[in-house]
Amino acid sequence: MQLLSLREQVQLRTGQDPFSQMMRADTGMEFETLGNIDSNDPAMEMSLTIEGLPNESNGQPPNPFAVVYIIIPPQQQNWLQHNHTEMVENNNNPHFLKTIGFGDSGGLEPTMRVKITVFHVKERMTGMMTQIGQVIFTLNDVLQTEDLSLKLALVGNDGTRVGMLSIVSWLNDTHGNTTNLSHDDDEDVFTNIVPAIRGRTMSVKRRSKRLETLKPLCANITTRTFRFETNDSVKLLVHEYMAESKFAFDLPIKTLQLLIEEEKTRIKHLQDLGQLTGQWKAACAVYQDICMSTVTTYTQQMKYLHSYQGCSFKPSSKKADKELEFVPLNLHLQRMTVLNEATESWGAYDVITAGAFVAHSRRARNHGGLKSMLHKLQESYTPEGTLSKVSKVKRACDLVNCVHLLQGEINTLCDRVCHEALRGDSSSLQAATLELEQKVKDLVLDCQSPILQEVAAQLTELHEDSEALAEEQTKQSQGQESQVSPESGTGSAPQAMNWRWTGSCFIKSPTSEPWDMTRVNTEASLVCLTSMVEDLVLNKSGPLDQPKWLGEISPAVIKLKSFVEIICCKVTYFMSFLDLIEHKDILKLFHSIKVRRDIVFSQALTSLVTGLVLHLNALIDNKQVLEQLATLGVVMEIEGLLSCHGDEIPMLEDMLVAVDDLSTVSFQLVLESTQRKSVQLSTNNFTRASLYPDLNRHHVCVTIPLPQASFEKLPDKLQKGDRVSVVPIFFNIGINELATLAE
């Protein structure tokens, strides 16, 4: 009130507003957070240094803070606030790190007048300042110099010199041209500055090239530039970028598509169980209803994200919106590039910032976070044995993964056997066959697992009861019209496990054969193949017989592959029944955990993909980084600020599970084509067998297409399709419940 009163009195006496040439009272040091008013890709930048500022009346050095004002002709009076530097504490000779930009890709106005006013910040908290001095010049004054630098006297309020201001400036290559730019060679690059630099070769910094690489991946890119002088006189130009990831909504949509397919697969597996009776029939029906409901919900959310027209990230104000729950919170890129002006070498350092991976829209106060909910779920699981602490679900996940891993190795060895047969190399053929024999034996041994035998026997017994019940019902309904048979056109209804209704017709079920018989047939097909190889090697009459080997071996190889495929299908089929057994009494809890886990996984996966794609974008020329990806994988190091207090405990528990699930993700780098231009997600047959096993969700592979120039820089292993594993690490900084008070 006193300030406003004084302002009115001065205005009445002088006819002028005293604030027109002063800092705004309502902003103060908030200048430092208002952001750049100039372009993010300026045509020209300046670095400011001041020498010889006077001490304060108490003998202490000042806290200099420079504010830049401009006037663009034909305006002559009203100075517009343009930009500012940072504050330098207790310094008579400040070198301001933050640079000041002018113009944009459209050009530069050389007649622009610039006023730089230097203030002493007396109180940072309140923004109280006093003016030390100022200097006025035009951009043309700078452009006329040989090295684009000026040295001007800083004039105080009484007209005396209070210091010297040194200006070092440079032009930015906003069009991505060569380092040395002659205006005569490129008339349209810097419009409106022809008189100043025509015919001269100027030093131009390639700032825009690093900015251009970000634009396909990020939106709303904001930049800051700083110039450092090191102790050995090396000058470092530092660019800070903040941007919004374009993956923030794209990846959750693709994750939802993947989860919908997972749910549809689970429905199919439950239908494959055939006709069940009693409690199993009811539990199976409820399970299928829950899966169908999940498909419907996820489809609606996916459609909403497709049509979303808001900003390109999810702000904190929308963290509880159910429609956006699969989208990570406040996902941004923070990139710093450091350029050595002498050597032109540079490095890039990325940090991806995001809100904690938490299902804010599904607060579960009674159950805690995901860790507590999963612990409660695991307590309900049946242990593998009387003395075992391992649950049947955990053992089942390990078994499924082991079987599918062996299937991949067996298929690879089968192809190798055929290749060696085609080459006619008997020693290599025998060696490949020996390896194949060992892998098939390992597979058969896994099939004798007690848990697999137990589930197979229980399911067979249920189907026998179902068939007996069906026969009894058939006898009671004699005389009624019989159902059409898929083979003869008349007869009885198809028996369970022999036929399955697809929605339009009956098809033969691959699970109709007894489990023991499947294992015996697999062993028999292996014996047939190994005997055939031995006979061919022992009875070969000459080199002319060797090309015939492939024709004789191929049928046996195909037969072996078929039986291995049937084994894998049956193992998945049996484990689907085990999944039903373990969850039939807790389906609602299981469903809520599954959805919550899907939400936090989507958020974590989106952040991971954003980080790795930008990592490759910045370091594709770094051979050491690429070799590390090929041999060790990628480390995703996450730093959190969650406390162990109040509502943040469930948040921390959600984070733990989300980070743990990222270990089931892998990446594959492929050559970009017209069909593969964007990141794609897919699943394989491996289930989550980590700390919190889950038979309903599988490992995710992220396919990242790269342009040919980038793809050719990859190590041979990655070019051939090897996958990059992920090692997630969560480091939570120890903040307690007093953090809010301290803030």
From TrEMBL:
GO terms for molecular function: phosphatidylinositol-3,4-bisphosphate 4-phosphatase activity. One of its GO terms (cellular component) is cytoplasm. Its EC number is 3.1.3.66. This is phosphatidylinositol-3,4-bisphosphate 4-phosphatase. Keywords: Hydrolase, Lipid metabolism. InterPro entries: C2_dom, C2_domain_sf, INPP4. Residues 467-496 are annotated as: Disordered. Residues 26-152 form the C2 domain. Belongs to the inositol 3,4-bisphosphate 4-phosphatase family. Residues 475-495 have a biased composition (Polar residues). Pathway: Signal transduction; phosphatidylinositol signaling pathway.
